[in-house]
Design brief:
alpha+beta; 5 strands; 114 residues; binds zinc ion; binds guanosine-5'-monophosphate; five-stranded antiparallel sheet; 2 helices; HIT family, subunit A
């Protein structure tokens, strides 16, 4: 999508601190990190939100979650703990409408979330 911020980061049109990329996913550091490790795991294909997933995307979503676990391990947080979050639409605070999985780690994360 031409006016999508994350599509532009994926295409290299605007810079992103990329920590992983493969054929289907790109992961980059959040510009406004909420924890010592705050990475966004993003499919290359533009999908607006969780509401727009189809059954054919089950493998893609699985790979996003498995990538989060791999990145958490790579950064030494697999045993300490980490949080994975999809925000969907207004009341959950979604601001970028290209689906992304937040990976947060490196500090105690309160529950319930705000
Ligand atoms: P959401 O609120 O939609 O769940 O998450 C969007 C995230 O994208 C926010 O945590 C925000 O800090 C991050 N973000 C917004 N603009 C940029 C940007 O230009 N680059 C990067 N790396 N992250 C961004
Ligand atoms: Zn997009």
């Amino acid at each position: 999508m031409s006016d999508c911020l994350f599509c532009k980061i994926i295409a290299g049109q605007i810079p992103g601190a990329i920590v992983h990329q493969d054929d289907t996913l790109v992961a980059f550091t959040d510009i406004n990190p909420q924890a010592p490790l705050h990475v966004l795991i993003v499919p290359r294909r533009h999908i607006a939100s969780l509401n727009d997933l189809a059954s054919e995307d089950d493998g893609l979503v699985g790979s996003m979650l498995r990538r989060a676990a791999a990145l958490a391990k790579e950064h030494g947080y697999d045993q300490r703990g980490y949080r994975t979050v999809f925000n969907t639409n207004r009341e959950a605070g979604q601001t970028v409408f290209h689906i992304h999985l937040h990976l947060l780690a490196g500090r105690p994360l309160a529950w319930p979330p705000g």
